[in-house]
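Budget justification, computational time. The allocation requested in the original proposal was used primarily to generate C-alpha cells for proteins on the priority list. As evidence of use, we reproduce two of the resulting records. The first is shown immediately below.
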Amino acid sequence: MPTEPERRLSAPPTTESLREIGLFGALTDEVLHHLASSLPVQVVGAGEHVFREGDSAREMFVVLSGEVEVLKRGKRGAETRVALLGPGDWFGEMSILDVQPRSATVTAVAPSRLLKITSESLDALYRRDLKSYSLIVLNVARELSRRLRVADGIIADFVANVFDEYVVSSRRK
C-alpha cells in the first residue's frame, strides 16, 4: 500500500497548476480539467533515466515538480548536458512530431513528477477538440522556435570564438 508521500507524488495535477504551464496556454478550464484527470503522472527518482538517446517512443513529458537534465551524446560517446529543466518545462515532444528515436537522454536530477502525454492522448484531443489540439501544437512550435534561436546564438558564438582564435593564432606565426 502506498504511503501518504507516495500518494501525493502520483496524484493528478490540478487544473490551476496546468494553467500555469506554457504548453497549455489559452486552453479552457474544461479542457485543462479533462487533461488533469486523464493524463498519467510518472514519478522518477533522482538519478533515474526517463528515457535514453536512441529509444523509440511516442510520448512527451511535462515537469510538474523536480528537475531533469537533458544529455546529448557526442561523436566520441561522451554525454554533455544541453539543458536543465524544471517545473513548467516540457521535453520529448520531438518524438511525437517526427516519429524518430529519442535525440537525447533525460535523467532526473531530483525526485520529479512528470505528466505523460502520449501521441494517443493528443490524437484523442484532436478528435474531441480541434481548437485545443491546435493550441497545444502551436505552443510546442513556439517553444521549439525559441530553443532553435538559443541554439543558433550558441553556434554563432562558438564559430566566432573559434574563428577569432584561428585568426589570432595564425597572425602570431
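The second record produced under the same allocation is shown here.
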Amino acid sequence: MTQDEMKFTVAQTALKYVIKNTIIGVGTGSTANFFIDALSTIKNNIKGAVASSKETAQRLENHGIKVFDLNKIEAISTYIDGADESDNDLNLIKGGGGALTREKIVAAVAHQFICIADESKLVSIMGSFPLPIEVIPMAVNYVKNQIIQKIGGIPEVRKDFITDNGNFILDIKDLKITNPKAMETKLNSIIGVVTNGLFANRGANVLLLGTPNGVKVITT
C-alpha cells in the first residue's frame, strides 16, 4: 500500500468522527485534502466547516461545502487535520504547509481534535521534521538568535513563503523534543513569535494512523 493509499484510507475512516448537523474544523495539507474529498460525500450531513487556510477554504468551496468565519459561529464540534510528526502521547508537530497559526486557533476552539496521518509520522521523539515557527517579519533575526541561545537547533527562514497572515516561517532543524509542552510554551514566550508548530498543550484527542494493515487508532 502506497503512502497516498494509506492517507486515503485514514481520511475515509475520519468520516466516522464527523458529527451530524454541526460545523467542523478542517486542516491544511495533503492528508487534509484527502479528508476534504471524502467529506464531500457526506456534505449534506453537516452545516459546514471552518477552514484553517485559504487553500483549504477554496477546496471546501469547490466541493460545495459552506465555509464559515470562525468569529461568526459559536462552536466547532470536531477538528480534523494531519500532522508532520506525532509521538505516542499525541503531541504533534504541524506547519509543514505553513498554516500552523490558523490550525492552532481552530484546534483550540474545537471540542475534539482528530489527527489523521500515515504510520511514518509516528515517532518516539519528535524533531526529525523541522519545527515551524511563524514570526513577525521585523523580528526574524531577533527570534533566530533567541532560538539559538535558548532552544538550540538550526533556525532557517523558509524561502519564498509568506503565511496567510503575512508573516515568515522559521524552520528549526536538528531538534530532539523530549518535553513538547515546555518547549511550546518557551518558544511562544519569545517576542516576535506568533506561534510555533508544536501542538502539545492542546494535542490530538485521537490519532488515526494509516498502515498497510488498515487504520490504527491511538487515544490519549
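A brief technical remark on that second record: The first strand starts at residue 23 and ends at 26.
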